[in-house]
């Protein structure tokens, strides 16, 4: 396994752009999506006449749906665990949240455009029990479940190493960054499949595959909203603003989440001798969340693919974690704040 120093040299050579520049590019792209949504909304209102108030209300609703959808637990687990992997490899993955969200919202945007164009095939994919809905649902849940399972096991291995290092440090042993790297059988098994996820932009494909299921309330609600707005006489530009507003909101929130997690993990890994407990706790929370969502997702996959009658599998397939993501955010922020406060108090005592 490559040492931390070797990885640091390798990724510094690849990350030619400074961190601030990449942050500007990422949030500049988010701002461009917002500007495009506003432009379409204004163009639609110019031609909308009596439908203008309805258009404004629907676009605002779509935007808020994008905000809510960004805090679904599967989004957070995928972004958090991917960010942890990249930070451990000495990268500054500022665009993980943006890439994942853009991939996810690409599916929603394409479906919205097809709905606006009057394509009946989207209705086939949205209809429960249809072949199209089943196939896309199996692809989306299967890929997302396996990805989260792999990331959860990989970061679980890192958590085990961090916990061991923490116990050794409390006993007086010296700790190096290599002591926090995932090792063992699980890390070796997952090294090859996860090696394809080398850069934050690779997460775009993962996000796209996550979105194929058409099974979230936000996605279905947006497509139904677009259909209803079309029947109500909202002009085409106003209709196109709906999926774009949804995309703009989701990319903004997911990008902020990704950058926040990057800073959290960087602070956890920056000084192993002082932050071992924080690193182990944050890594453990992320790993457990990924494994938890993976079990639920794969349970739903098994229930749909094999029509199992097992009550536990059926329950796993019906669990809605749309609101639970906020609890995960609150927990991680509380741990971060507690670690910061502890560090501040320790510094005051030394002075």
- Strand count: 0
Structural class: mainly alpha
Name the assembly state. Answer: single chain
Mean pLDDT: 76
- Alpha plus pi helix count: 14
Helix content: over 70%
Q: Uncertain runs with pLDDT below 50, 5 residues or more?
A: 1-14
In short:
The chain has 14 helices and no strands.
Using brief descriptors, characterize the structure shown:
14 helices; globular; mainly alpha; disordered N terminus; 0% strand; single chain; 351 residues; 80% helix
Can you characterise this structure?
By secondary structure, the chain is mainly alpha-helical. It has one domain. 80% of the residues lie in helices and 0% in strands. It is built from 14 helices and no strands. Helix 4 crosses helix 7, helix 4 packs across helix 14 and helix 5 packs across helix 9. The radius of gyration is 22 Å and the shape is globular. The relative contact order is 0.18.
């Amino acid at each position: 396994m490559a040492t931390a120093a070797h990885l640091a040299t390798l990724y510094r050579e690849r990350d030619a752009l400074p961190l601030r520049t990449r942050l500007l590019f990422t949030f500049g792209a988010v701002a461009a999506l917002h500007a495009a949504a506003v432009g379409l909304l204004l163009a639609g209102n110019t031609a909308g006449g009596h439908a203008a108030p309805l258009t404004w209300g629907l676009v605002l609703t779509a935007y808020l749906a994008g905000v809510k959808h960004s805090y679904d637990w599967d989004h957070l687990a995928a972004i958090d665990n991917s960010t942890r992997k990249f930070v451990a490899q000495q990268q500054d993955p500022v665009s993980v949240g943006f890439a994942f969200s853009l991939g996810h919202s690409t599916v929603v945007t394409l479906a919205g455009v097809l709905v606006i164009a009057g394509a009946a095939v989207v209705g086939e994919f949205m209809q429960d029990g249809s072949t199209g809905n089943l196939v896309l649902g199996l692809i989306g849940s299967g890929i997302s479940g396996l990805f989260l399972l792999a990331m959860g096991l990989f970061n679980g291995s890192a958590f085990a190493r961090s916990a061991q290092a923490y116990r050794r440090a409390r006993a007086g042993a010296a700790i190096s960054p290599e002591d926090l790297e995932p090792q063992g059988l699980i890390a070796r098994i997952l090294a090859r499949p996860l090696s394809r996820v080398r850069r934050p932009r690779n997460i775009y494909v993962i996000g796209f595959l996550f979105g194929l299921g058409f099974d979230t309330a936000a996605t279905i609600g947006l497509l139904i909203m677009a259909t209803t707005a079309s029947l109500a006489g909202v002009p085409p530009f106003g209709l196109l603003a709906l999926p774009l507003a949804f995309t703009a909101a989701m990319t903004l929130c997911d990008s902020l989440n990704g950058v926040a997690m990057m800073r959290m993990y960087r602070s956890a890994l920056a000084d192993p001798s002082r932050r071992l407990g924080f690193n182990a706790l944050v890594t453990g929370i992320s790993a457990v969340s990924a494994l938890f969502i993976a079990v639920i997702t794969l349970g739903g996959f098994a229930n749909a693919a094999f029509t199992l009658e097992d009550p536990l599998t059926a329950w796993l397939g019906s669990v809605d974690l749309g609101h639970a993501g906020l609890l995960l955010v609150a927990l991680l922020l509380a741990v971060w704040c507690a670690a910061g406060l502890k560090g501040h108090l320790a510094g005051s005592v030394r002075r």
